[in-house]
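Human: My hope is that you can spare some time for a protein that puzzles me. I am handing you a single protein, as its sequence and its fold in token form. Could you go through the record with me and say what the backbone is doing? Take your time, and here it is.
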Amino acid sequence: MGLSICEKAELTTYQLKNVAQAWYVQWRDNRPLRGGPMTWEILKMNFLDWLFPREMKEEKVVEFINRHQGGRSIHEYSLEFIKFSKYASSLVFNPRHQMSYFVMGVVEELQEKCYSVMLHDNMNISHLMVHARTVEDARDKRKNRYAKRARSFDGGSSNNRLEIQEKRRFKKRVSNQVPYKFPKARDDKGNKLRAKKGQSGNSPNEKPTYAKC
């Protein structure tokens, strides 16, 4: 459908509703006659100025510059970056500038690998986001492997500690029981020796007696 820029603007005005339609009527009536024909670019510029005042635009630009990944995933950060970059079109009109702002917001451990792929001539913001997500997935898998190894090591160490403690308790119980058995054995042995001497006759200190003739 081939429309001129003026026809395109006029067609758009028919689609405005409620508050937007009231704004257009007021803007059209107050527009000077020497302003020339209403084109699509003129209508879009004035409409955006009314919908997004300059103060709000400046706030969105600052929010875009200060936006960082934080504890979110690369996927979540990428969606917010695209959402807020439209408010800072003057900062990201150059693809290299757009990629630089994106990398400045990712976590520090991913920045080096992202900066390295930016040197490729065919790199753009979409490819950079995919690469950052791939690097993040590899990092998370590596952390999960280390965590599993640490848990298995801690489990083995705990079993060893429990085994050592059990052995110590066993030795303690045995050592507490031994002193009660040995003295009794020594007393039984002494009683047996005394009984045997008593059965054999007089003590060695007594002198033998002889019969008188």
